[in-house]
Design goal:
The protein is α/β, with parallel strands linked by helices. The chain has ten helices and seven strands.
C-alpha cells in the first residue's frame, strides 16, 4: 500500500508539472485532489462438499450470502459518495472453472459489469433504472443452478492454485487516471476485492508440504505448540515454516481478500471448544501469513456466520476499506 501511495504522489507531481507548463500557471497554483474508487468485486465460492448441508450443516447458506451482496449492488454503487460514472464489476468467479460447461449454464457470464458504460453516462443511467434489477435476478438464478449441479457433481476446490493462477484473468487491469479541471483534480482508481466462501481447510492435488492446510496439519500445530510451553501462538507458527502455506508464484498486489464461512471443527455441537488452540485460531494465522506474503493488501477472516443480517455490513465495510 505504501508503494501505491508513493507511485501516486510521483505521478501527481509529474502531472502538475505538465499541466503548469501547458497552461503557464504560476508557482502559486494549487490543485486540490480527491480520490474516487471503483470496485472489481469477485465473489468466489468453494464448491467442494462443504456446500452440502447434510454433510456440513451451517446456519447460513452460500446462496443467502451471495444474494445479499447481489441485491445490494445499487447501494454498493453509492459507496464513497459516488453518484455517476461508477465503473464497478460484480462477478461470481469459480475456483474450479471446469464446472462451467454447456450442461450447467445458459450462456451467462456471471457478472454485472458497469465498465462497459465508461464515458456513457446516459446509457449507464438507463441501465440502472430499467435493466439492472432483471440482470441481478438472472445472475442469482444462474448461480443457484451451479450450486445445484455442484451438489451432484462435486468439482473440488484447489484454493492455492486459484490464487496462484486462475484468479488473474478476473482481476481488473484498469490504469489509474487523473482528470484536472482548473484547480481540482480527480484520481480514479480500481480496487480488486475478493470475497471467498470456504471452510478454510486447503487441500490441493499437490500433496507436498506447503500446499495443504488439512486437519492433520492443524492437529500437529496444536500438539507441537502445547509441547513448546510457549504462550504466543502466532509467533510459534510463524517461526516454524513446516506449518506454513507457500506463497503464490504470482504476486497478489492490489488485491484485498475477505474470507467468510471458516468452519471450526474443534467446536462441539454446542459451539464449545473441545481443543485449544482452536482450529479457527490456527487457520487465521496461517491464512493471513499466506495471503499477505503473497502480496495481498488487506486480509480479513471470519468464522461461519449465524445471522444473515451480519452479512452485508461485513462485506460493505470490507469493500470500502482503504
Amino acid at each position: 500500500m505504501k508503494k501505491l501511495y508513493s507511485s501516486i504522489i510521483v505521478f501527481l507531481l509529474f502531472v502538475l508539472l505538465i499541466s503548469c507548463k501547458e497552461t503557464k500557471c504560476s508557482s502559486k497554483t494549487k490543485i486540490t485532489y480527491s480520490i474516487t474508487s471503483n470496485y472489481n468485486v469477485l465473489i468466489v465460492p468453494d464448491l467442494s462438499n462443504r456446500i452440502n448441508q447434510s454433510i456440513h450443516p451451517k446456519p447460513i447458506s452460500d446462496i443467502t450470502i451471495i444474494n445479499s451482496v447481489l441485491d445490494r449492488i445499487p447501494e454498493l454503487l453509492k459507496l464513497g459518495n459516488r453518484n455517476l460514472n461508477q465503473l464497478d464489476i460484480y462477478k461470481i468467479d469459480f475456483i474450479n472453472r471446469g464446472i462451467l460447461n454447456e450442461k450447467t449454464i445458459n450462456n451467462s457470464n456471471f457478472e454485472i459489469n458497469f465498465l462497459k458504460f465508461k464515458n456513457r453516462l446516459k446509457e449507464a443511467s438507463k441501465y440502472k433504472g430499467s435493466q439492472l434489477k432483471s440482470d441481478i435476478s438472472t445472475l442469482k438464478e444462474e448461480t443457484a443452478k451451479i450450486y445445484s449441479y455442484a451438489l451432484i457433481q462435486s468439482s473440488g476446490s484447489d484454493v492455492w492454485n486459484y490464487f496462484n493462477e486462475t484468479i488473474h484473468s478476473s482481476l481488473s487491469n484498469q490504469i489509474d487516471t487523473i482528470k484536472i479541471s482548473e484547480n481540482k483534480g480527480i484520481i480514479s482508481t480500481t480496487k480488486n476485492k475478493i470475497v471467498l466462501l470456504t471452510d478454510g481447510y486447503i487441500e490441493t492435488i499437490n500433496k507436498t508440504s506447503g500446499y495443504n492446510l488439512n486437519q492433520d496439519l492443524i492437529t500437529e500445530v496444536r500438539t507441537e505448540f502445547l509441547k513448546s510451553k510457549t504462550s504466543n501462538l502466532q509467533k510459534f507458527i510463524l517461526s516454524n515454516p513446516q506449518f506454513l502455506v507457500k506463497k503464490t508464484n504470482s504476486d497478489l498486489k492490489n488485491i484485498d481478500v475477505l474470507v467468510l464461512e471458516i468452519t471450526d471443527r474443534s467446536l462441539d455441537i454446542n459451539g464449545v471448544a473441545r481443543f485449544h488452540p482452536t482450529d479457527l485460531e490456527i487457520i487465521k494465522i496461517i491464512w493471513t501469513d499466506w495471503l499477505t506474503k503473497s502480496g495481498a493488501g488487506r486480509v480479513q477472516i471470519h468464522a461461519t456466520l449465524s445471522n444473515s443480517k451480519d452479512v452485508y455490513p461485513i462485506i460493505k465495510n470490507f469493500i470500502e476499506s482503504k
